[in-house]
Write the structure tokens for this entry.
Amino acid sequence: MGRIRLLSDTVASQVAAGEVVERPASVVKELIENSIDAGARKIEILIRRGGISLVRVVDDGCGMDRDDALLSLERHATSKIRSAADLQAVSTLGFRGEALPSIASVSRFRLTTREPNALAGTEIIVNGGKIDIVRDGGEAPGTQVEVRSLFFNVPARRKFLRSENTESRNIEHQIHLQAIGHPQTAFTLLRDDRLVFQVPTTETLGDRIRDLYGAELLERLIQLHGAASRKVQIRGFIGQAGLSRQTRAQQLIFVNGRAIDSGLITSAIREGYHTALMKGQYPVTFLFLDLDPATVDVNVHPAKREVRFRDPNAVREAIVRCIQQSLERGRTEWQEKFRAPLGVPAGVPGKVAPNLRLRPEVSAPEESNRELPHLGSTVAGVVDPGRAIKTHPPPSPGPVKRDGDRQQFQIIGVLNKLYVLMENADGLVLVDQHAAHERILFEELRRRMEEQGVPSQKLLLSQIFDLPPRDADWVERNMSILQKMGIGIESFGPNTFKVDSLPIFLNASDPAQFMRKVIDDLKSVSSSSSEMRLGEEMIAKTVCRHAVKANDPLRYPEVEKLIRDLLDCDLPYCCPHGRPTMIQISLAELEKKFGRKV
């Protein structure tokens, strides 16, 4: 008896604060979200010693009267919701009513606020959760919050803080997130009274990205447009194929304006890029999802970093489809750019671009009529050995196709028997002949296998294996997809399955273990994905062996055909492994390198 006791209000507040306030960046996040909910158009943040000594957030929002200011320091006091029904459709960033009392309970806290038309404002000083002073204040309209000596009364938590520099970087990242999510709001950050960055209000997300990350990154982004479905609106920017990072630091995701972390969305983004990414790389994304608030549960995590979707499959499919369509649109733009007529040299009116002489290995089309290396019967078991997959016959010798009287692109030569040099309207283009041929052969072989079906072979002994209930349910719902992929699988009792055939190109010594890996891999795959997903890794390895190599000399018709076939691919900008196939060096960049422009 007597072992269970009620915690004191002080201890309960500190426990609650531990869920919301992890570090100074958490304080900054909660205060900025309150400012945005209050309609602020300008937010200024000052930090000292990485936010451990001081965090001050000043906004020009709607402010509060004295009663509301005092009530805001009570736990679960909020202006955002009124009833349980409101909790099912939260449209504001804050709603729990825990941020201010939690912060005040572990710091020396000062709040000053004033409504726009009020003669005087209110100042409240709190030490460790206890209100010390309430008096009139004379600050400008809006709200100012000062948080000093964070965790001064919880030394165990203070020991877990990192260096001042690390905490400052975390705060700067958090402000970047909020600035990207709300471009209509101006942000200023000062660190130890030194200006770190200042961004004004902007009309578009693109302007805010340019202000924070530079024009060079913005030029390499593809804009997302319009409705991905009736239920999910997707907007923002994603990186072009080949633009990636080694971490997810620039993979920013927002749901109804709230920055979140979501494994579901992350896997959908990777699925949308698919072979346009190298292994171990992450795309650059500024992805915004707008949904009916009733279809998103934001009351999952105290810090509101995670959300739960009512229809996660619909969200995943919408993201995959939107990214694929955007990359497709980017492909069209690439095709137009590389096929654009060559421009007249600047400052020389009426002068036609010179007819450059090609290097010896590409200058004599009449000497060679051979085709590019192609996949034939050497790919045993993948296609019918009697049917070789051939490239289209090379064009008859002659000039490059013209648009009117002007060339669409001009092949200059081949550098080091590997890089094809071309001139287009924007400047110089370098093409990796091996990576380009890999992409061409990859898409051709995958298309042929989709049309003819996936060849499979019977196992000598059928394999019977058990699966956990969730995996078993997934297999039962997707059995037809697995069968189309060449896997002969059928139910063999509760949570038990039998496999009697596998795709012929797979070497699976343990079919049961292989099936468990397949299930894990395919769970994140879009339902509209290619039936050849299981074989794509094999296809990529196969075409890598059969594509033209470095030091393989190519004649003019072979080079021209390679370029034209590449531009006709679904994803011409990268090989199946995610490496770039083309690099554009603009005329402006060349002029800078030669000192013709500053």
The longest strand covers residues 456-466. The longest helix spans residues 312-338. Confidence is low (pLDDT under 50) at residues 341-370, 374-407.
